[in-house]
Every structure is written in structure tokens, then in C-alpha cells.
Specification:
eight-stranded mixed beta sheet, about 40% helix, globular
């Protein structure tokens, strides 16, 4: 991928499948490596915002529950899991002398102008102070009327709020393919997309991870939001945290969504 842009403010969205085992429990080795790489990216002079999924999944694992269907159990699991996630992030980032903060959002806070203004001011000040904001939807109180629905969309909205140069979606997929790679071994990965067309939307499947809420459809929607706000976006596999280095070096990894002009 040919791209001469320098990225100075980056949002990294981490999916549930990157953070956890299939049991819902934290994948300790991967999260430790991920925080190490993110800290190194921050040390390079890049402002960093993390949008982290996983609260419900971690809460479910910690409580020993099956995947909850009813809203009160889901919200209870999110409440427990969010504590666990923030404890882990705070502990691991502190090893590399980085301070993190927790930012929990709902859609009405973003869409109501006065509340949005407060979010913008807070996020800007956190970045000025050298803090790494850890953002998640406030699943403990979110209901259908005020939820984002998935953290792909949330991360794109956060990118627009903070004026990010780049949005990185870390998931359990390698990128966008010309056909379903699970069904067709000859499927080819698309390295760069310059516009969200009907053809691109048609390539998106509906299935997501068993631990997450988003599939390729939500990622395409996030790409459209990002590109409309002049933010580049890339989808990479989160199983290997070192992939973030390849992204920052603008190597041909994952699928890049880069608006021309």
C-alpha cells in the first residue's frame, strides 16, 4: 500500500475475540503483549485512544455464566467485566509508565450537542495530559434506544470526536475478502478500498464472533464513517499484536480504507 501519511493520533479498537479465550476468560499472554506494543507505539510520539470491547464477555467468564440473553444479566456481566478490564489495563500500562483513564459512552451523550461538547473537551484534555483513554460503550446502563450496538461503530464515532488520523480495528479476521474465505479457499484479500460502494457492501457477511456483536457489515459501516471524517481505517487480525507495528509502518497488512483526495 502506497501511503505517505504520518499518523499522529490513532484510535485502536480491540475486539472481544482479541482479548479473551473462547471461554470468555482473559487471554493473559495476548493482552500483555498487546499492551506492550501499544505502549511502544505511544512512546514513538503517537497519541493513542483505545476502544475496548470485552466487558460483557469477561463478566460472563468471571461469573461462570453462559452467554446471557436477557438485558439485566447482560448489564450485570458488563458491570463486573468492566472492572476487571480496567484493572488489567491500568496494571499493565503502568508497567510502561503510561496512565489510562476510563471513558464510558452512550449514543445520546454523543448526539446531544452540549454533552458531545463535554466529551470532546475531556478527550482533548486527556490527550494533552498524555493519558491513554480506554473507551467502551456503557453497557451497564445502555438499552436499545441509546446504544451504539457495536464497538466498530463506536470506534469510528470516537475517531471523529478526537479528530484521529487513523482507526485500527483489531478483530478475528484478516481483512475484507472478495468472497467468504471460510467457504472458498481461493478467496483473495482486498488490500485497499478507496470508496464504500454497493459492491463493497455486498462483500460483507453478517456473521460475527460468538463473543462479539460485530461482523464485517459493522466494519464497513465504521469505514464509511471514518472516511467521511477524513480518517483512514485498517482491519487487522488481533491474534498477533505485533501487526500494529506493520500498520504504523504502512505495510500491506489487513485491508486499508483510504479516501483519495
Amino acid at each position: 500500500m502506497e501511503n505517505s501519511k504520518h499518523y499522529s493520533r490513532v484510535v485502536v479498537k480491540i475486539g472481544s475475540s482479541t482479548l479473551t479465550h473462547s471461554t470468555g476468560h482473559i487471554n493473559i499472554r495476548r493482552v500483555e503483549e498487546l499492551v506492550k506494543v501499544l505502549s511502544d507505539v505511544k512512546n514513538s510520539g503517537c497519541e493513542l485512544i483505545v476502544v475496548s470491547s470485552g466487558a460483557v464477555a469477561v463478566g460472563v467468564g468471571k461469573l461462570g455464566l453462559k452467554r446471557p440473553c436477557d438485558m439485566p444479566t447482560k448489564q450485570a456481566a458488563a458491570s463486573v467485566g468492566q472492572c476487571e478490564l480496567m484493572y488489567l489495563y491500568d496494571k499493565l500500562f503502568a508497567q510502561y509508565n503510561h496512565t489510562v483513564s476510563q471513558v464510558l459512552l452512550t449514543r445520546d451523550e454523543v448526539e446531544i450537542p452540549k454533552r458531545n461538547e463535554h466529551i470532546v473537551n475531556t478527550m482533548r484534555r486527556l490527550l494533552e495530559l498524555g493519558v491513554i483513554p480506554i473507551v467502551n460503550e456503557n453497557d451497564t446502563v445502555s438499552v436499545e434506544e441509546i446504544e451504539f450496538g457495536d464497538n466498530d461503530t463506536l470506534s469510528a464515532i470516537v475517531s471523529s470526536i478526537v479528530g484521529a488520523d487513523l482507526l485500527i480495528l483489531m478483530s478475528d479476521i484478516d481483512g475484507l475478502y472478495d468472497k467468504d474465505p471460510h467457504k472458498y479457499p481461493d478467496a483473495k484479500r482486498i488490500y485497499e478500498v478507496n470508496a464504500i460502494t454497493d459492491e463493497i457492501r455486498a462483500l460483507a457477511g453478517s456473521a460475527g464472533s460468538s463473543l462479539g456483536t460485530g461482523g464485517m457489515i459493522t466494519k464497513i459501516a465504521a469505514a464509511q464513517i471514518a472516511m467521511q471524517n477524513h480518517t483512514d481505517m485498517v482491519i487487522i487480525n488481533g491474534e498477533r499484536p505485533q501487526n500494529l507495528y506493520d500498520v504504523m509502518e504502512k505495510k500491506a497488512i489487513g485491508t486499508w480504507f483510504v479516501r483519495k483526495g
